[in-house]
Specification:
single chain, alpha+beta, TATA-Binding Protein, 2 domains, 5-stranded antiparallel sheet, 7 strands, flat
Length: 195
């Protein structure tokens, strides 16, 4: 009889009454909302003013320079490519292959007469943007994203900061291009001399 009473007391201490169930459900909902708050609304792209006097080609060069902090490596020879691949396998994770962008950096993908496509990679996150421009303004807009909870209206909260950093680099590149234009009188246009 005494053991039955102890077993009954033990069982009642593990019972979930309705208030405990509601509290657990509320905690689950709050935790879900906390994870959902890691996204923000996508703002329309802001216009980045292009300094007067820059040609379309000079604006394009400034955009690419803003994305690339260092020269793009030339095409590797077959033996250099094999050596790069072998070093990548042998010294992983200490060796960064020549063709692999660094983590947390913007890298150039492609360009046309009026736009540049660039990407930003950090760990498993990948953001791809289009930098559309003419001789008066440039705009950065999201093309797609991997692992960043991207929808047409929302994206991971880190993305606006990454885009803002890129916009700062573009403004800085424009300033450098304008300063070179002011000091040299005129910058070479990449379309000149193609006769």
């Amino acid at each position: 009889m005494g053991s039955d009473h102890a077993l009954l007391a033990l069982r009642s201490s593990f019972r979930w009454d309705s208030s405990r169930i509601w509290r657990a459900a509320l905690l689950i909902v709050l935790a879900g909302l906390a994870f959902a708050c890691k996204t923000v609304a996508i703002q329309p792209p802001s216009a980045i003013a292009v300094p007067q006097g820059l040609t379309q080609s000079q604006v394009r060069i400034a955009k690419i320079a803003a994305v690339i902090d260092q020269p793009v490596p030339e095409n590797l020879t077959k033996s250099e490519e094999m050596a790069d691949r072998a070093l990548g396998v042998a010294l992983w994770p200490f060796y960064r292959r020549v063709s692999t962008p660094r983590d947390g950096e913007w890298f150039f993908e492609s360009s046309s007469d009026d736009s540049v496509t660039a990407s930003f990679q950090r760990q498993t996150y990948l953001l791809r943007v289009l930098i559309a421009f003419d001789t008066s303004a440039a705009r950065v807009s999201i093309v797609d994203a991997d692992n960043l909870r991207y929808t047409k209206s929302r994206v991971h909260k880190a993305v606006p900061r990454w885009i803002s950093d890129l916009e700062i680099r573009i403004r800085r590149s424009f300033s450098q291009m304008q300063a070179a234009l002011d000091t040299q009188g005129a910058l070479p246009d990449s379309n000149q001399g193609d006769d």
